[in-house]
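Lab notebook, entry 286. We have the chain sequence and a SMILES string for S-adenosylmethionine, and the next step in the workflow is to get a structural model of the bound complex before anyone spends time on docking refinements. Request logged below.

Task: model protein plus S-adenosylmethionine, output structure tokens.
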Amino acid sequence: MSTNTSLRSLLSGSTLPKNEAKILLAFVLEKHYQLPRSALLSRDEMELSPQALKQWKDVEARRLSGEPIAYLIGKRGFHEIELYVAPGVLIPRPETEILVEIALREIQKLNRPANILDLGTGSGAIALAIAHLASQALVIATDQSPEALAIAKMNAEQLGLTDRVQFSEGNWYDALDDDHPSTQFDVIISNPPYIAAGDRHLNEGDLRFEPASALTDGGTGLSCLEVIISQADLHLKPGGIIAVEHGFDQSDATVHLMKMANLQDIQVYQDLAGHSRATSGRKSAT
Ligand SMILES: C[S@@+](CC[C@H](N)C(=O)[O-])C[C@H]1O[C@@H](n2cnc3c(N)ncnc32)[C@H](O)[C@@H]1O
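Result returned:
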């Protein structure tokens, strides 16, 4: 007979949305019993040990107070990889996969070893998703946050990509100064902080728990995009491409920044919700 600590009664008694309760209970099962998620159904009479029950109550309470699921379970899927994530880094978003796709298309077209730069790598999401699929890509991933870089390096090790992804700490392109001063890139990718200071979204949902330095530039939202785009020409090979993510209402401003930087073949990309979410531009080939 089931008691109030059986999997079934814990799930039915939780006030969390069902899908969230299942993810968190599956996490506890995996951690304490190395059981797969399917055990939620196949062993729903199973009673949790006192330690497992304590952890379930802890993650349930923290989720009820708003902590992101990805931080509670320590991972998030992105493109075709899984990343370790913790409060020091942004939780990778599905819309950022647009940048990975742009880079992969470009690498495929080049059909030779390609030099890629990922500015503001966070968990390493973009850099590692590219390197995972493109064996000809050599990627440099930068961030100004040592905490983020430590997590990105752990992910590179976990995914076996340390030979093709290098990490550098510093402010945007300054991070290249010591080790790669004259490297020019086939592809520059960045998902910089682009939310304006005071935007109400910063006080909503997962964003309340993510590092402010990953979300906002503390100003209009455009200052990081401006630095990254205006200096792209110096760091791109002739014919190279830069692609950046931006807010749904920042595509006009981003296109303008690309025109000011003499970039050509400017294209805007929509996310799955139909919002303008990324823009690319190309350095002249001559
Ligand atoms: C929106 S997050 C993107 C993280 C990751 N690329 C992703 O898409 O999931 C922006 C990242 O830029 C980094 N960053 C912010 N200001 C920076 C700066 N001045 N120079 C380098 N990196 C910076 C933050 O630490 C953060 O990791």
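Notes for the group: The longest strand covers residues 236-245. Worth checking against the assay data. The beta strands are 75-78, 81-84, 114-119, 137-143, 165-169, 185-190, 236-245, 264-270, 276-282.
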